[in-house]
Amino acid sequence: MARKMKTMDGNHAAAHASYAYSDVAAIYPITPSSVMAEATDEWATQGRKNIFGQEVQVTEMQSEAGAAGAVHGSLAAGALTTTYTASQGLLLMIPNLYKIAGEQLPGVINVSARALASHALSIFGDHSDVYACRQTGCAMLCESSVQEVMDLTPVAHCSAIKGKVPFINFFDGFRTSHEIQKIETWDYEDLKELVDMDALKEFRDNCGEMWYVYTSRENRMERLRESRGYTQEKTESIMDSQAPEAGFREFSDAVIDNNGSVEDTRKQIRRLLKNKIRMQ
Known about the structure:
This protein is α/β, with parallel strands linked by helices.
């Protein structure tokens, strides 16, 4: 199990290990964690395979809250899912962290820790963002060097699967996330041997049905402009970054049309729930 030496920063070390264990990555960039999301997106675009022989499905959401919601939903559907964030972005994920922990879902949130903004925006490095999540029920694992990030990020992912608990895997923003060191890297074949496949199968078998809520591109863009005041260029950029509809339909047990009114959507959900209860 000879390990290759490579030069990289902490963000790339976390992304390298995280990519191996992820089916899905729901992302939204925030300094200093953006490099992890960018690297994951780049590798997926290049066709890089994880330990399961698949490309990671990367989806950029409209905020960190949306990314956390996507992580929760993806995990509930049986997909190993990760995200990358820092500072106020992590705070926006707290409501979903309670749900993910309470439902014993093995998600991993990779955090390059950064000071929270209070009276003014700050990019100083501290752990106030991570400490704000102590009460959520997530386990926490901390690294203090680039080599530790490479070695312990797999521990976070494998422990989450085995222990049925989400992990906040964190390290110092800038001080470690952007520090460049020559380190020993892990080959994906070696990382695959670390996974408890029985625990992974149990996780996947426990997932419920996947319902895909469909909205046309035109309606999504219009709703973004109305709710957030985005420009046409901004909304088109967000739409282009999202995964194609065909991929969602392929893995969905049911499709809900969200192009109409709220009441129309509710009726469809009630109908699906009734059918589900009837089948049981």
